[in-house]
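User: Predict structure, ligand FE2/S2 (inorganic) cluster.
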Amino acid sequence: MTLSVSDPTWYPIASSEDLPFRHVYAGQLLGRELAVWRADDGNVNVWENRCLHRGVRLSIGINEGGELKCQYHGWRYANRSAGCTYIPAHPADAPARRIQNRTYPVREAYGLIWSAANDEQAFRPFPGAEGHDWFALRPMPVNAAPEDVLAALAGLAPDDQPADLLPGLAVRFGGTYYFVQPVDACRAVIRGLLAEPPAEPVATLRHYNETLTKLRDRLERAARKKPAPEPLQPAFDKVSADLATMPDIAIPKGNTITVVVKRKWTSADGVIGFELAARTGHLPTFQPGAHIDIHLPNGMTRQYSITNGPGELMSYIIGVKAESASKGGSKVLVETVREGDLLSISEPRNNFPLRRDATRTVLIAGGIGITPLLSMARFLDKSSLPYELHYFTRAGETVAFRADLEALHGKVTFHTGVPRDEIGATIASALGQWSMAQHVYVCGPGPMLETVRETAAAQGWPEEAIHFEYFKNDKVIDNSSAFDVELARSAMTLHVPSGKTIMEVMRDAGLTVPSSCEQGACGTCLTTVIEGDVDHQDVYLNNSEKASNRCMMTCVSRAKSARLVLDI
Amino acid sequence: MITLYDFELSGNCYKLRLLMSILKLRYDIVPVDFYPGRQHKADWFLRLNPFGQLPVLKDDDLVLSDSGAILAYLARKYDETGLWFPDDPAVTAEVLRWHAVADDITSTASAARLALGFFYDFDVPKAQAGAHRIFRLMDEHLWFGEREGRDWLCSPAHPTTADIACFPYVMLSEEGGIGRQDYPALRRWTDRVRRIPGFTVMSGIFPAGQALEIA
Ligand code: FES
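Assistant: Predicted complex:
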């Protein structure tokens, strides 16, 4: 038999014991180098051993428990999806969507980690696998051709117990199984399994180790006398164009995903937790601070932040405020959606990117605004970065996600029932004076956001260091103006009458325009302005962005001039 | 007052920086341009150490050379816990045994690195094969150690100067073209060394991720 790089057979590539938490194991199968790591949730990842950024080996990366971080440049990839969650120094502090490392199929079974060169075959247990308490021997790497190693192993069988050759470079005699991992054309690892744990484990392991060491030395002596076979040459996917050139803003395609409401519970008075699980496999990679749109049974769409930590992709957990005043949106979720129901959600989007190069990060939450900040705190926690989380709740209101917050290692402070006139002073002391590389993130009711913005500015915090996310635009939109928009790329001029938004006019003209909140809060419809004087009415852009007159939201913004030229 | 005659990229000098960092010792550095300046063969340096080798450590008037010997000296003199070079005849023998292995690693893995990175005229394939021979033995020793509840090279339940002496040129072996893929237990041990409180880095040697705290 000759080895092939596209052989779809499942081979063992490591022992379970080779993968302690927070370690990255270096493996190889059929010429492909693998970075293999166990996440804190127990999941084993088998990835191509290269960081997509510069091709540095990921086996020298840092296993942070939910993400693997490249040692050299800080790119991070999430548990399960291998999706990139962070590109340092990227304009928006966030990667374009769907940058994903190459992954290989994986299964942990019988004390071994199994993988294959591709997904063509489903994993099948080896003959006789079931019903035993398998015990793995010390693996023995051998510099010899895998076929020769297999033949030599078969020769170990005692005369009265002939070796039984199994599919997938494996051999069995008695209760001993040997698997040959084809590392490359001239390298292999012998992985032995005993059907039951021996009475004296260490003595038994030493005995087998001695036998296999002798076998290895014999095989290597013979291999040195033969011409070495050509190493296998796996082809590697080229780095894609959108990796080499970073797009400014990734506009989501509007794909929806169906999820199951796995759990619904009361997290605090008036805050309902929902766990939304994938129907098969895992959900897409998300970044700290990201949200999803939920398409509600009544036809409405609402945004909710994902509270999960890094690499937790089996389900998203959100918190919904059950305000009695809520008209429609959250009310439907709280009142009519039950466990087991299916919901349609968007892919995660991030308008609230977290920098992970800050020397100090301050997170300030008010009420339900805790949700994106809980996710951020979890990411910072896993990376052992310093942060302070301040959570303001009104008197009488209970703290949502309390147990999750108490499990964090950072500094978490609960401010309950602080009188209105003292909130400013509390925020001021929480923030302190600004110095280089400090960032504050805030999410909560409008007045609180304003307080944080003003206080921070007064204490020397520059605009770029203050990050906030609005889910709602509370301002009354003035749509009385009338003007023309010229769409430079579409070569169209449209008239926007009073009472209609630019977005509506463009849609009437047959254009597809991405949007989400349609109230100038989410940033989805951000557009470049080429000419004209914008009447901003959104809460998404900060003051200097607004003053630059270079961008605007087509869902609420209008023109002060008679004409606007947009890059659409 | 401690003064270290130091070359930033030397693993043998790094051993001393590492132990002094772990023991929280303050010291001065006199940089010696080993490459390309070859200052370790200059007259002024040969007067300090006639063997013409880095590192050299001066503690007040005492001048010491050989990284293994200096590790033992620093631990005996400055480590109040007595853990790094334990005062027990059997353990001393064990530690010295691994100091000798560290020298073997230097003459193989480090030689290959010097040849590939610093244009020294050494037999690279021979040095690489020698390093693989040692790494195989270390991997086996450490693998059975894990089974027997031993995390470090020597028998005490904590690291000793033996771990520091062997660590740098194991970590830098890739620079000499010596992969560590076949030595998973050796790789796990390097994670443990990199998690020792007070651990410090050098070019090519990074810290490991935080260990998982089991609540
Ligand atoms: S659609 Fe959300 S800002 Fe315009």
